[in-house]
Amino acid sequence: MHTQPVTTRLADDETLERRDPIVPPDAEVIITIDGPAGTGKSTVARTLARRLGLDFLDTGAMYRAAAAIMLDRDIPLDEPGELVSTVIGADLHFDFSADPPTMLAWDAPIDHRIRDEDVTAVVSQVAAIGELRRHMVRKQQVIAAQHPRLVSEGRDQGSVVFPDADLKFYLDADPAVRAARRTEQLRAEGHDVDEADMLRRIIERDRIDSTRADGPLTCADDAVRVDTSDLCVDEVIDRLEEVVRQRVASLVRAQD
Ligand code: DC
Question: How would you classify residue 172: left for phi > 0, otherwise alpha for psi between -120 and 50, otherwise beta?
């Protein structure tokens, strides 16, 4: 593979150094990124996908969409059958022409709703429903078949959904660091947040996510584990990109 810098002159006369793509344009590559909330996982996954020219799959958005549907249709949490059949009817999918891709239910955008506080409060419990997870796993595998150059982010992507992924990452960080990051983020958005309460909620969410019977939050044996506690988002992305750069040649050779 060629990785020699290529210098390109842009229209506004700026000079930009461009490298050959890290992942060749014709290679099928699935990269998974798992880990708990507050590790910067979504931003890291989305930016890494953009840098590598891959599609980005936010599987948390799918569970959040299911939770929003449950709340907005007044479906009780203890009626998983009704929830799953409604979610199947919603045909959750993404419009990949947007960046980040738009989450659609019944062919209508649902992004504006899925990060609301009431959705965040129940989504762990919704994501623990085994029947719903089996549906989501199948959907995610179908999406990957249609988008075979993918960075897929979630909790079970490397362990359950794509056990044969080409490269798996697991991002982690101290819960106190994650609570501080989340608090700062919400305060910047104008919310009134108590950091101690945020830490309690993060620990509880981790407990639910990592102890459920189906697809628990776990680091796959063959995942590259990165502790992000002392790293900023850009440093995490650079580190992952470096691992991809080191591994991609052998990945692509294995496909030939
Ligand atoms: O990453 P997030 O905060 O948007 O995820 C929302 C919830 O969905 C969170 O409780 C974890 C859960 N989830 C999951 O169980 N499996 C996934 N693959 C992705 C998210």
Answer: beta
